[in-house]
Structure prediction request, 254 residues.
Amino acid sequence: MSHTLITGCSTPQRPQLTATMATIKPAITATVSDPAWDKAATINGLSPCDKRASFQDSLNPTQIKVLWDAQYLYVRFICDDDQIFTPHGSTRNGLHHEGDVTEVFIDPVGDGRQYVEVQVNPVGGVLDVMHTNTTPYRPNRTEVLPREDWPMHIGVTEWQMPGLRTAASIHTMDDGRKQWITDMAIPAKTLLRRVKTETFSTMTMRINFLRCDGPVDPATGKRSQLIASSWSHVPTGLPHLAPGTMGYITLTDK
Prediction:
């Protein structure tokens, strides 16, 4: 069965990704050698959320891989790094975007009314958020929520996504720099409740992929500069308030 779920937005400039169905189920162990990812849809690099040239020069390489089957959307981030910073460690529901973290935002319906966020940091810390906009927001009117509507946005950080599976690992590359991997298995049964189905099929959804990075001041032990990057451009600090900036992912069984 095929679903077309995009209901209220026409932004052809937003990126599009086609993800094929997994022939091998990813292990979700963040191991380098997992062969399931060999045939995944791949995004080679993110762009800075701050468009100044200095931020482009500061980006560490990021690669993203995506697969799916009936039960899960699978996402892997591969992040090169020269300094790993995880101020909240492996805490569940910590504010991991204050350190190094990978993020996925998904709006299955595409109307900007309800969407989920999943964050995973290099040491396995997870933050999953259910976002709801209680105003009659329309993504084709403005991609970022109007400021007057911000009080009507609800982000439930205490929510924990039933069935979510994640993993993270850190490796040392040949040049001595670090590389970290995060794996996510995002369950259809939870994600697709508004669509009234419990399984993925050939369908299109709104999605965005982000990474938070940046140097740390050794004197204070805090981040001295946030360098946020994304697949579909969104202003720094506003991805939770900008459902209309998400790109498009099409799940195909071809």
About this structure: Helices lie at 53-58, 188-191. The chain has one domain: 2-33+40-252. The two ends are 14 Å apart (CA to CA). The chain has a mean pLDDT of 91.
